[in-house]
Amino acid sequence: MMNGGVMACEATSIIKHGFYILQAVSPNRIVELLIEHWALITIGGAGVIVILVFGLLLWKLRSKKAVAKPQSAGAGDQDVRERISSGDYQLITDRILQVGGKYKSILFAAAGLNSLPITIPVNVAIQIAQRKKRCLLIDLDLKRDAAAKAFNISDKMDPKDLRPKPYKTPFEGLLLWPGRNFTMIKQMNIKALVDAATEKFDLVLVNAPYLDSSPDRAQIASAAHCSILFTQSPAQAGRLAALMQASQCKLIGNIQVNAEKQ
Question: For the whole model, what pTM was predicted?
């Protein structure tokens, strides 16, 4: 503390002494000195500017390093999933609408029904329709045809309907392509279906609750522009994230639905 005080006093004395010297020198003499040593002054000024610019760049580089880099979804043992309750459809809806201008088909990819209950894609589709967007929900839950049951669509087939078709729902602008349609034509090309739907609808949602174990997972993943993962472990998230990357399906969400709130 004593050394710091002495140094401060000495610095103040030097500054005052320099100020008195400047007062003693006439303005004309100052001009002469500036003209006489203009080269040194210019070099010195340029050096100060270079030092300031270098310092600014160094500060920016350190600031960038201080910001943690985001982990890739499901990478290794890192758990980078967002956690939401099963009723938090708003977050998912907003995420989809944010990218809706660029990506029109969104895959809901999961490793099982515990990760992706049918209430999530159904309610998200309803919210999208309520935002005045024409939406088609394609349900790949062939085991249960759950989306059709959620909208109370009869399972009785009209003999006149020889071709599968989308069904109207109680919500304006929202149509459903139920799982039963895929059982009518077993060789249906999911990519061709999604591509055709994006020409008629603002957004197309594809519900794939068993994607992790599906033998057609690569074809399904490549059918959509982007995807949201619904998983219960980092390992599941890692497998599905790798599938999305290999299928060039952009990942826009990696979510764990809290089981205790379902």
Answer: 0.67
- Report yes or no: 253 and 229 within 8 Å, Cβ to Cβ: yes
Angle, helices 119-130 vs 89-99, to 10°: value is: 60
CA distance linking residue 137 with residue 140, whole number of Å:
10
pLDDT tens for each residue of 28-78: 666 666 666 666 667 777 777 878 877 777 766 665 443 333 333 333 345
Helix and strand numbers, DSSP H then E, in the chain: 10, 8
**E-assigned strand segments in 33-166:** 82-84, 105-110, 135-139
The two tokens of residue 4 are: 């710091």
Q: Which CATH class is domain 82-261?
A: alpha beta
Strand order in the sheet with 250-257: 82-84, 250-257, 226-230, 105-110, 203-208, 135-139, 174-177, 167-168
Every domain of the chain with CATH number 3.40.50.300 lies at 82-261
Q: Which residues contact 227 (CB under 8 A, 6 or more apart)?
A: 106, 107, 108, 109, 221, 244, 249, 250, 251, 252, 253
